[in-house]
Amino acid sequence: MTVTAGDPSQPATYWPRGLSRSVAVPRTSLHHNLEVSAARYPDKVAQWFYGREVTYSELLDETARLAGYLRRHGVGRGDRVLVWLQNSPQFAVACHAVWRAGAVVVPLSPMLLPQELQFFLHDAGIRVGVVGAELYPKARAAGLSHAVVASLGAGVTNSPVPVPEFFALPETAEGTDVTWTQALAGEPGGVVPVTSSDLALLPYTSGTTGRPKGVMHTHGSVQANVMSAGAWVAATNEDVLLATLPFFHVTGFVNSLLAAIFGGSQCVIMTRWDRAVATTLIRERRCTLWTNTATMVVDLLANPDLRAQDLASLRDVTGGGASLPEAVGRRFEELTGIRFIEGYGLTETMAQTHTNPADRPKLQCLGIPTFNTLARVVDVETLEEVAPGEVGEIVVSGPQVMAGYWNNDEATREAFVELGGRRFFRTGDLGRVDEEGYFFFVDRLKRMINAAGMKVWPAEVEAALYRHPAVLEACVISVPDERTGERVRALVVRRAGHEGATEEDITSWAREQMAAYKVPREVEFVESLPKGPTGKVNWRALQEQRR
To answer: Sign of the CA dihedral 30, 36, 39, 43?
Structure first.
């Protein structure tokens, strides 16, 4: 079953009421979005950051000044520039300055160690970077040629919520490096013209199956999802977006940072996730839109002090990265009256390819293809389309899909397949589609557990375990078994008040919820589950530790 967002022959029952099936993607640069909003709303607060308010005119002025410095330091069209900052107004300024200079943003995780950073500097050919003061020692150790060093705490005073300790670090620079203040002291730089097909962003894949790969996104492919993010939830310039996802990751970058600037909205920025701070900001800043991950929702609901009125200002809550278990989604709706809008996408698709309709979402569901996007579920071997309800690999085609992998033609060829004369990206994710065109995630192709010839999908077992009252978080992995080859193990974080729950309590309950071969053969109780930089449970680390 092919599901096409822009095809008027598709069933109208699932498409959001009053919403066009397609949108025209701007052919202008990403920097132009900031210019437009600054011209329209110069005195409006664009970003709120621990009490610091940055207007659109201030954001544009700092962007122009940093761009001027970058150009005087030799950064030109097509050059790759490291943006190694945690969530902050400085992150927004750095990215738009790079684009104003005609160059390419390379956003990387602040969690990288110097030896890891070295790989990216070499692979992307990075000479210049904008880095946080807390990351600067690591950048120097990695051999970054030239750095602009920013203290994220600059201008933050009288914050109504606790601030990270590293905010106190001063701007310091050694050798030929400069501080943020020094870089912005010079004359503004002009705009280097680029086209929508020029490279704008080079995020990297996680590298869980080998070396990380640079993902080439143009101004056009990024704009496609920046445009669709706001249109899908009918965002206006009066909305206030809470940013809790890291900006270096495509979902937070598009749906929180860039979508707010495109629409002239206000973005309330958190540098790090903290459920108490998030609750306070939603309540006090009257946040209306929030994009998050399932783990954030789980953590928020685990707060015993959370009240429905704390979240009363929220209109739409969207998320991705991993499916929100149905049981968690129902608890969230019972508390807030809001139905969680789940979406789906990858780094290679600049975040969303699918999203649930706001007026008709389904729980634990990826949603339907967004504007101008085609999606299919195909047989992994034959690439033939499978029937509704059958499991296969999700493949997508749309304006948000990457141009290819950086300096890796072989990987690019393997990532795409031509079906019916159209180029589709192979996601590596297994899923199914129902009769109404809604897509459902089954699991990663490489994560399947083979228990005595029976296929077990960990995500399915995890979703069931979340329905148990004692389970706060769960992760299912495989462990070697002499008799069956592999067996199912569940790592479980117990919910407060259920510390007495036993392994037998979980497994006996599970036998009533799922087929016997899916039931975890063993349950290991843990204090917490490791999370990656985007907040998703790092199942691969747990898998490797216990093999």
So the answer is: negative
Predicted local distance difference test score (pLDDT) of residue 12: 46
Question: Does one domain contain both 116 and 239?
Answer: yes
- Per-residue model confidence (pLDDT) at position 514: 84
Q: Three-state SS across 328-345? A: HHHHHHHHHCCCCEEEEE
What pLDDT, on the 0 to 100 scale, is given for residue 442? 85
Give pLDDT, residue 139: 98
513 within some domain: yes
Domain with residue 465: its CATH number is 3.30.300.30
Count CA atoms closer than 13 A to 359's CA, side-chain side: 10
Ranges under pLDDT 70 in the chain: 1-13, 207-210, 452-453, 546-547
d(CA 113, CA 282): 33
| Domain presence at residue 188 | yes
Q: Measure the N-to-C terminal CA separation of the chain; round to a whole number of Å.
A: 38
Give the rounded distance of the alpha carbon of 332 from its chain centre: 21
For residue 452, what pLDDT is reported? Answer: 64
**Residue 370, domain member (yes or no):** no
Cβ(426)–Cβ(412) below 8 Å: no
In the Cβ-directed half-sphere of 371, how many Cα atoms lie within 13 Å?
Answer: 21
- Which of 276, 308, 338 represents a domain boundary (last residue)? 338
Give the per-residue pLDDT at 9: 46
Whether residue 175 sits in one domain with residue 37: yes
Q: How many domains are there within the chain?
A: 2
Quick one: which H or E segment has residue 229? helix 219-232
Mark whether 231 and 99 lie in a shared domain: yes
Q: How many CB atoms lie within 10 A of CB 176?
A: 9
User: Which one of 297, 314, 338 terminates a domain?
Assistant: 338
DSSP conformational letter for 188: P
Whether 311 maps to a domain, the answer reads yes
Range of the domain at 123: 25-323+330-338
Helix ranges restricted to H, 241-395: 250-252, 259-263, 275-284, 294-301, 326-336
Residue 341, beta-bridge partner list: 318
Q: What is the pLDDT of residue 411?
A: 94
Could you identify the residue written with the tokens 């034959």?
A: 382
Asked if 374 and 387 touch (Cβ cutoff 8 Å), the reply is no
Distance CA 252, CA 259 (A): 10
Is the four-CA dihedral 372, 428, 325, 10 of positive or negative sign?
positive
- Residue 58 sits at the vertex; the CA angle it makes with 52 and 61, to the nearest 5 degrees, is 145
Residue 291 belongs to a domain with what CATH number? 3.40.50.12780
* Dihedral, CA of residue 533, residue 159, residue 149 and residue 266, to nearest 10: 70
Q: Which sign does the torsion angle of CA 404, 407, 409, 413 carry?
A: negative
Residue 89 near residue 52, CB atoms below 8 Å:
yes
Burial state string for 306-341 with b = 16 or more CB within 10 A and e = fewer than 16 = beeebbebbebbbbbbbbbbbbbbeebeeebebbbb
